[in-house]
Amino acid sequence: MMSENDIAVFFYGLFMDESLLASKGIEPALATTGYVDGYRLRIGKRATLVPEQGNRAYGVLMMIGREDATGLYSDETVADYVPEPVSVSLPSGDSEPAICYNLPPSKLEGANSAYAESLLLLAKRLGFPEDYLDVIRSEGDPS
Question: CB within 8 A of 128, min separation 6: which ones?
Answer without folding.
Answer: 33, 58
